[in-house]
């Protein structure tokens, strides 16, 4: 990534209808911490992340550890980290929208800078909505200097609406896994 700024970790719900507990659904606090940070154990989600989009579509658990995102037919909502990260283990717990969720895209991604388009670098997990009874699809992609073309789609072998599941990225100086 050369002299670019380290990436942001971003989550977004785009389209129409959602609720969960680990944003893109919703996300627990402290799951991604800067390598050199001294984040207190009792940090809340809001200490590390900021809402992007409709703030009135976010509810917080009583302990501040989980944010619930709600969508309607017109408004998307998301969040992004307040700090940037060079390397690390980034993990999100998601529970996807059940039933007929066609048109809903739940995205969990990292990008070099949200304002760097079209030249930004990006790692994507995109959970595509579906018609009732159809398999859920996760779509991944990697962009470098604005060039993607590495898109892959995978049918999930489990029900991502039944419970929260962890989705992780390990990013170090030599590999992205």
From TrEMBL:
Which first-to-last residue range defines the signal peptide? 1-28
Which keywords does this Swiss-Prot/TrEMBL entry list? Glycosidase, Hydrolase, Signal
**Which lineage do the record's taxonomy fields give for this organism?**
Eukaryota, Viridiplantae, Streptophyta, Embryophyta, Tracheophyta
| Stored InterPro entries | Beta-glucanase-like, Beta-glucanase/XTH, Beta_glucanase, ConA-like_dom_sf, GH16_AS
Source domain of life is Eukaryota
Q: Tell me if Electron transport is a UniProt keyword of this record.
A: no
A GO BP annotation: carbohydrate metabolic process
Query: What is the source species?
Result: Eragrostis curvula (weeping love grass)
| SUPFAM superfamilies the record matches | Concanavalin A-like lectins/glucanases
Output the Gene Ontology terms for molecular function. Answer: hydrolase activity, hydrolyzing O-glycosyl compounds
Protein name as annotated: GH16 domain-containing protein
**Record-annotated active site:** 122, 126
Q: Which residues form the GH16 domain?
A: 16-177
